[in-house]
Design brief:
Strand content: 15-25%
Strand order of the largest sheet: 22-25-26-27-30-29-28
Shape: globular
Number of helices: 26
Bound molecules: alpha-methylisocitric acid, iron/sulfur cluster
Structural class: alpha/beta
Number of strands: 30
Distance between the termini: 40 Å
């Protein structure tokens, strides 16, 4: 079945005229990213050369995708808008709430029982508002979107940072918070800071042990976790067209780890092949007719320096397999240098577990290449040294790889197959012994490796690599094993070498599946009742946040001055806390518990300025809230990196934090804060971070004349009676200032809807 073919056809019928008009107005050839953006301008927005990185522009995305851990908040918000149906095709995917423990069937059953209330809520609210629902077990949102909904030249948003995966099929797909999704589903425009453009020219061809994953691991090493902020990365060149569509998806997916707004590739044969093999020949045929509009102009790719803000060139023929980590996805080490790096940093070299799969690396191609290594274990008389697990990205892939005997081959090396879900990638891994917090090393083909992310153990060092390399390292049980040069000792004592991986881009016999796990919404959902129990621990209806009081903020207490990396995992941890994603008050008990307090280097231990005693961050903040005193959070660089979870903004809002002031923000988190009516400020002078003292009371001055482009003043009243006045920058435009004043964007929407 092809979903929403009308939408695809309509997009293609309008695209040529829109793109030609943009080319004419700008008087120059266009990149692919620009073509898609200009073809999706909100009605009435005039085409012009918007200043990249400066201008806010309104867009009309084609569709919305949500996963269960973020959909709850997105739909609780949507439920308050009074709309009868979603304005654009939208879907919900149940993938984040399934714990990986024993094996897929048992784990899935357990999740269905435990999350019954949440799944019922999501299924019925989807039914009510015309949203497609993918049941638990159907697969991970991004894989299911790639298989069913993504189309070249389309534009979508999704309440998950890895929505960008759909760039592998030539889309502009962007991760957002639930409030943004709510806007688009409510029929409003969607605002985005016009992204800068980074071009990545891929020359040569992947070969031997290298894979698409190594491209993005290398790019992450070059650009770092913030190098892509407010930019779209566009890949092109012979290396791009020679790569599979799912490989392109992997590269785009992990583009979230460099903070990029999104990444994309021009439409090519590999995409047509993928569309056809996933039952969407009609989409491929329609795309073929407007081909030249679905890729960057030849002049652009011939002279990229003229059209992109930055250009990177990577020769795939020379690219080495990489391992990135631990604790950050941009610490890139080519495999040939791992021996040295591990020794220098004292990383444990014994690999305990190799984990393949996840939303970014569970294509048929990935699995078949990993299988080609697993087969060699028996053939060469080896024994797999580490534990090994597979998390398929979708039921379509799982069913097909089972049919083709791949799961049997994995079983022979002692592998465990987990449910088609996020599982270990998001801390939903009930790993035996993790509570002992032993220092240990794991390797996986996921995309994030922040502290505690996979198993909750702060002493697990996770390294990210391609599924092929993960499999080889699991067989060897050694982080420093370089399969290109090193040998392994087999059971007979002989030295053997692993042959380089090989596999099929797409299944020779085609994909098959018995039940993909889709539930279509009712034609007329108006009678569907949504019940949220008063005493539910998992779900809570939302209340409206209070509007701004109309004065400067005086006497805010410093809640925490966070030191170093503070990702959304540090602000609102996942794993065991995912179960409270639909209950704002309960999930607020995890607020900032992972952030390191600058003043004592501890996590979850801050000074309560009312009592002078140290307590957990949430309890200290609840004390300020009870006393009706506002507070402020101070942060370092790239604050809020990682996830799209708006809980990281809603929890502080709910508990009475008024301001988050940092050296720099990650894009989605900054928007989430604005949407929820918080003040998101940056130090005009980054060194002023050092002026913040533990007992500070802080004022924010200038709010009565809060204007776009005008800095605010922050006064630090220190305990010794002295004070410092520092400048705070902000990136609020006039509309966003309205959100702040109204107490949140939703209050503005509701007021508009009731008019
Ligand atoms: C992630 O990879 O961190 C997540 C879990 O998918 C998040 C979404 C969430 O926190 O629910 C993301 O990437 O946005
Ligand atoms: Fe799920 Fe991990 Fe992908 Fe996030 S990155 S969607 S947690 S598999």
């Amino acid at each position: 079945m092809v979903f929403d073919l009308d939408l695809v056809k309509k997009t293609y019928s309008e695209m040529p005229a829109k793109v030609d008009a943009a080319k004419k107005a700008l008087g120059r050839p266009l990149t692919l990213a620009e073509k898609i953006l200009f073809a999706h301008l909100w009605k009435g927005v005039d085409i012009k050369d918007f200043e990249r990185g400066k201008a806010y522009v309104d867009f009309a995305p084609d569709r919305v995708a949500m996963q269960d851990a973020t959909a709850q908040m997105a739909l609780l918000q949507f439920d308050t808008t009074g709309r009868k149906k979603v304005a654009v095709p939208s879907t919900v995917h149940c993938d984040h709430l399934i714990v990986a423990k024993d094996e897929s069937k048992a784990d899935l059953q357990k999740a269905i029982t435990e999350n019954d209330e949440v799944y019922n809520f999501l299924s019925s609210i989807s039914n009510k508002y015309g949203i497609g629902f993918w049941k638990p077990g159907a697969g991970i949102i991004h894989q299911v979107v790639l298989e069913n909904y993504a189309f070249p030249g389309g534009m979508m948003i999704g309440t998950d940072s890895h929505t960008v995966n759909a760039g592998g099929l030539g889309m502009i797909a962007i991760g957002v918070g639930g409030a943004d999704a709510c806007d688009v589903m409510a029929g409003l425009s969607w605002e985005l800071l016009m992204p800068k453009l980074i071009g990545v020219k891929l020359t040569g061809k992947l070969n031997g042990w290298t894979s698409p994953k190594d491209v993005i691991l290398k790019v992450a090493g070059i650009l770092t976790v913030k190098g892509g902020t407010n930019a779209i990365v566009e890949y092109f060149g012979e290396g791009a067209t020679s790569m599979s569509c799912t490989g392109k998806g992997t590269i785009c997916n992990m583009g979230a780890e460099i903070g990029a707004t999104t990444s994309t590739f021009g439409y090519d044969e590999s995409m047509a092949r993928y569309l056809r093999s996933t039952g969407r020949s009609e989409v491929a045929d329609a795309a073929d007719q407007v081909k030249s509009y679905l890729t960057g102009d030849p002049e652009v790719y011939a002279n990229p320096e003229k059209y992109f803000d930055k250009v990177i060139e990577i020769n795939l023929s020379e690219l080495e397999p990489h391992l990135n980590g631990p604790f950050t996805p941009d610490l890139a080490t080519p495999i040939s240098q791992m021996k040295e790096a591990a020794a220098k940093n004292n990383w444990p070299t014994k690999v305990e577990v190799g984990l393949i799969g996840s939303c970014t690396n569970s294509s048929y191609e990935d699995i078949s290449r990993a299988v080609s290594l697993a087969k060699q274990v028996a053939e060469k008389g080896l024994k797999t040294k580490a534990e090994f697990t597979i998390t398929p990205g979708s039921e379509l892939v799982r069913y097909t790889i089972e049919r083709d005997g791949y799961l049997d081959t994995f079983a022979q090396i002692g592998a465990t197959v987990f449910a088609n879900a996020c599982g270990p990638c998001i801390g939903m891994w009930d790993r035996m012994g993790a509570e002992k917090q032993e220092r240990n090393t794991i390797v996986h083909s996921f995309n994030r490796n922040f502290a505690k992310r996979a198993d909750g153990n702060p002493n697990t060092l996770a390294f990210v690599a391609s599924p092929e390399l993960v499999t080889a390292l699991a067989i060897a049980g050694d982080l420093t094993f370089n399969p290109i040069t090193d040998t392994l000792t087999n059971e007979k004592g002989e030295q053997v070498k692993l042959d380089p991986p090989s596999g099929d881009e797409l299944p020779k016999k085609g994909f098959s599946v018995e039940d993909a796990g889709y539930q279509a919404p009712a034609e007329d959902g108006s009678k569907v009742q949504i019940n949220v129990k008063e005493d539910s621990k998992r779900l809570q209806l939302l209340y409206s946040f209070a509007a701004w009081e109309g004065t400067d903020l005086k006497g805010l207490k410093l809640l925490i001055k966070a030191k170093g990396k503070c990702t959304t995992d540090h602000i609102s941890m996942a794993g065991p806390w995912l179960k409270f994603r639909g209950h704002l008050d309960n999930i607020s008990n995890n607020m900032l518990i992972g952030a390191v307090n600058f003043f004592n280097d501890k996590t979850d231990s801050v000074k309560n300025q009312l009592t002078g005693e140290y307590g957990t961050v949430p309890s200290t903040q609840r004390a300020y809230k009870a006393a009706n005193i506002g507070s402020i959070v101070i942060g370092d660089e790239n604050y809020g990196e990682g996830s799209s979870r708006e809980h990281a903004a809603m929890e502080p809002r709910h508990l009475g934090v008024r301001v988050v002031m940092v050296k720099s923000f990650a894009r989605i988190h900054e928007t989430n804060l604005k949407k929820q009516g918080m003040l998101a400020l940056t130090f005009a002078n980054k060194d002023d971070y050092n002026k913040i003292q533990e007992d500070d009371s802080i004022d924010v001055v200038g709010l009565t004349s809060f204007t776009a482009g005008k800095a605010l003043e922050v006064v630090l009243h220190h305990k010794d009676g002295s004070s410092d006045t520092i400048q705070a920058n902000h990136s609020y435009n006039e509309q966003q200032i309205e959100w702040f004043k109204a107490g949140g964007a939703l209050n503005v929407i509701r007021a508009g809807m009731s008019k």
